[in-house]
């Protein structure tokens, strides 16, 4: 009778610990789901804000500093809307400066694009791994 009572005590203790683990798991799962929903809800506004900040940082073209005597050209360069008449009035040296600046901008933007694509691929890989983990946990 002592052995059977000790076995039954062990069984209830194990069941209690398993139910505590299950409850802890369910609580943790609900918490993670709530955090994920919040993060997803905030992702779009945060991305918009980041794009806006990056646009403001890029607005000023370094060519504008090289052509201070032509403020309308500087503004057009920032807006990327040069007119043929503006280009006609410029010297070959000034045009070469603009061409060189555009080439350097293209190169830096291409490098940035490659870096962002690599980051995107890493994030997709992480997301796929997380989805597999979630699927395993839900099974």
TrEMBL record:
Residues 12-24 have a biased composition (Acidic residues). Keywords: Coiled coil. Residues 1-24 are annotated as: Disordered. It comes from the Eukaryota. Residues 92-126 form a coiled coil. One of its GO terms (biological process) is positive regulation of hippo signaling. GO terms for cellular component: cell junction; plasma membrane. Residues 2-139 form the Schwannomin interacting protein 1 C-terminal domain. This is SCHI1 protein.
């Amino acid at each position: 009778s002592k052995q059977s009572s000790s076995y039954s005590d062990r069984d209830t203790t194990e069941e209690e610990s398993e139910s505590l683990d299950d409850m802890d798991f369910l609580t943790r799962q609900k918490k993670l789901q709530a955090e994920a929903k919040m993060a997803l809800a905030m992702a779009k506004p945060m991305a918009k804000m980041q794009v806006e900040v990056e646009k403001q940082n890029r607005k000023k073209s370094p060519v504008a500093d090289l052509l201070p005597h032509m403020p309308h050209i500087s503004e057009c360069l920032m807006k990327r809307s040069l007119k043929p008449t503006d280009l006609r009035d410029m010297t070959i040296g000034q045009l070469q400066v603009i061409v060189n600046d555009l080439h350097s901008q293209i190169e830096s933007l291409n490098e940035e694009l490659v870096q962002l694509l690599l980051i995107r691929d890493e994030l997709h890989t992480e997301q796929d791994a997380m989805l597999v983990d979630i699927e395993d946990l839900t099974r």
